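Lecture notes, unit on protein representations.

Consider one protein chain, 433 amino acids long.
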Amino acid sequence: MILKKNILVVGLCWWQMANLCAQSYLSYITKQNPLRPNYSTQVLFEKIKTIQLYPKGNYLTNQCFPPVVPIGSTLMLEFDEVGTQAGFYALEIIHCNYNWLPSQYQPIEYLEGNPIIPINNFEISHSAKVPYTHFSVEIPRLKLSGNYWLRVFEEQHYQNTIFSYRFVVYENQVIIRAKVRRPLGAEPSIRMQQVDFEIDYPSFFQNPAENVKVVLRQNFRWDNAKIDLKPLFVDETAKRLNYHYFNLENAFYAGNEFRVFDTKSLIQLGTNVAKIEYDKLINRIHLYPEKPRKGRVYGTEPFTDMNGKFLIQHLESNMPTINADYTEVYFYLQENFIPLGEVHVLGGFNHFIPTTSSLMEYQPSLGLYMAKMLLKQGTYNYQFFVVNPQNQELNEEPIEGAFFQTENEYDIIVYYSQAGNRGDRVVGYQVCK
């Protein structure tokens, strides 16, 4: 009996210490930037590659699904560390409100088990020229719906963040009806897409015009999401919120279909691969030079246009997580120098985050932009973006164009903040095309 009591006391002490660590980190990063702590997806170590967070299930099919799951479901986190030496890592999960600031919930209220989760499952790459260690961990079931921010850090250095990732857990408390259409007006109608939608809410919702908040995303991107959309009209009799706007509040530039390349085999040339250079230490893949598409709509086969996603694949084996190799992929864009911004290669593989590795350098003697990236074998969607170096705003239109015919995916995330609750719930989710 005494032994059981001592074990319980030790367990409670560990739980309290872990909670204090989480609170300590929140306090630390809030002091770093008290106005807007950076609860975003970001990768802080160059050696960390191919981060994937997806609904638990078959890796070959589920890896390109977004990290948005109904309550009670679980997610898998996978990533690689390139090199012969691998670190020891752990993760924590923080509940956030709709605006990605932390809620007042404590880990014990939304997590089952310890709030600090060690990442103990790892495998060494097999038959790859570029050595790497593959890590995987199952995210525990969460007891509350909402926005969640996942942070991976060095196990012995709590504040040394390796990377972070956003994901969403939702309930089915509302009914969402949505339709993508061309907006009104001559100019917007040929370059933009508008998402009109209605939300039927339950009778227990209090003051839904203020307490219901909506986020609208294009191709599951957070950087250009429409945040905190308010209903244009509230039908209290029908318990319905109307979001049919007239001033483009719910409209996006449609962009163009994503470009694609395929490196799942190094024995034969894949889609849009011009040449493979074989070397003892690393293989180099040169893609065909691309041209701007501002004046023309680009079409792809349905199975290659994944709206910015990527798939890790290895044609010669059924274990791409440890058998797929890393290669240097060379991108070329035949375009004149653009003086008002930087040109970057972006897609789901780098989370649409411009970095030094995604930056294309202009080669005056060749009259083109060029970039090289270390990427794992697979099929990739990407586009060329012009990035404003002042505010990091992304704009694909100068190179890719914008056409209402483009096939995009939109998702609607519905939040509810009830009086007395200490955080926002996600009460509905819908994907539409």
